[in-house]
Amino acid sequence: MAVELKAPEGKVRVVGIDLFSHEDYLVGDYSNQKVAFDIADGKNKKRHGAMDDVYYVYDDKGKYIRGNEATGQSICP
Fold first, then answer.
1. Distances from the Cα of 43 to the Cαs of 9, 47, 51, 52, 67, in angstroms?
2. 39 vs 14, 21, 32, 43, 60, CA distance in Å?
3. Is the pLDDT of residue 34 over 50?
4. Where are the domains of the chain?
Protein backbone atom coordinates (compact mmCIF):
# COMPACT_ATOMS: atom_id res chain seq x y z
CA MET A 1 0.00 0.00 0.00
CA ALA A 2 1.36 3.39 -0.93
CA VAL A 3 0.51 6.10 1.56
CA GLU A 4 -0.10 9.62 0.27
CA LEU A 5 2.91 11.62 1.49
CA LYS A 6 1.13 14.96 1.24
CA ALA A 7 -0.42 15.92 4.57
CA PRO A 8 -3.76 17.75 4.74
CA GLU A 9 -3.42 21.53 4.39
CA GLY A 10 -1.71 23.12 7.39
CA LYS A 11 -0.57 19.80 8.84
CA VAL A 12 2.50 17.59 8.78
CA ARG A 13 2.40 13.83 8.25
CA VAL A 14 4.44 11.09 9.88
CA VAL A 15 4.87 8.02 7.69
CA GLY A 16 6.43 4.73 8.76
CA ILE A 17 8.21 2.40 6.38
CA ASP A 18 8.59 -1.31 7.04
CA LEU A 19 12.02 -1.98 5.58
CA PHE A 20 11.40 -5.73 5.47
CA SER A 21 8.21 -5.65 3.40
CA HIS A 22 8.88 -2.22 1.83
CA GLU A 23 5.37 -1.10 2.76
CA ASP A 24 4.61 2.32 4.15
CA TYR A 25 1.86 3.30 6.53
CA LEU A 26 0.36 6.42 8.04
CA VAL A 27 1.37 7.10 11.63
CA GLY A 28 -0.60 10.34 11.84
CA ASP A 29 -1.24 13.91 10.76
CA TYR A 30 -0.29 16.68 13.18
CA SER A 31 -1.00 20.41 13.37
CA ASN A 32 2.30 21.05 15.11
CA GLN A 33 5.59 20.34 13.32
CA LYS A 34 7.45 19.92 16.61
CA VAL A 35 5.04 17.21 17.73
CA ALA A 36 5.49 15.35 14.42
CA PHE A 37 9.29 15.63 14.70
CA ASP A 38 9.18 14.39 18.30
CA ILE A 39 7.08 11.38 17.31
CA ALA A 40 9.26 10.44 14.32
CA ASP A 41 12.51 11.08 16.22
CA GLY A 42 11.30 9.08 19.22
CA LYS A 43 10.40 6.10 17.07
CA ASN A 44 13.62 6.34 15.04
CA LYS A 45 15.74 6.47 18.21
CA LYS A 46 14.17 3.17 19.32
CA ARG A 47 15.40 1.40 16.18
CA HIS A 48 17.77 -1.45 17.05
CA GLY A 49 18.42 -3.12 13.71
CA ALA A 50 18.89 -2.16 10.10
CA MET A 51 15.50 -3.65 9.18
CA ASP A 52 13.45 -1.92 11.89
CA ASP A 53 10.77 0.45 10.63
CA VAL A 54 11.94 3.98 9.87
CA TYR A 55 9.82 7.13 10.19
CA TYR A 56 9.68 10.26 8.03
CA VAL A 57 7.84 13.59 8.21
CA TYR A 58 6.27 15.32 5.19
CA ASP A 59 4.59 18.70 4.85
CA ASP A 60 1.28 19.60 3.24
CA LYS A 61 2.93 19.78 -0.17
CA GLY A 62 4.32 16.25 0.11
CA LYS A 63 7.86 17.52 0.67
CA TYR A 64 10.16 15.44 2.87
CA ILE A 65 11.15 17.56 5.88
CA ARG A 66 12.58 15.10 8.42
CA GLY A 67 13.76 11.53 8.68
CA ASN A 68 16.00 9.57 10.93
CA GLU A 69 18.65 12.28 11.29
CA ALA A 70 18.20 12.08 15.05
CA THR A 71 19.67 8.56 15.07
CA GLY A 72 22.79 9.42 13.10
CA GLN A 73 21.87 6.69 10.58
CA SER A 74 21.75 7.47 6.90
CA ILE A 75 18.61 5.95 5.44
CA CYS A 76 16.80 8.31 3.06
CA PRO A 77 13.29 7.98 1.58
1. 24, 7, 14, 10, 11
2. 8, 22, 11, 6, 17
3. yes
4. 12-67
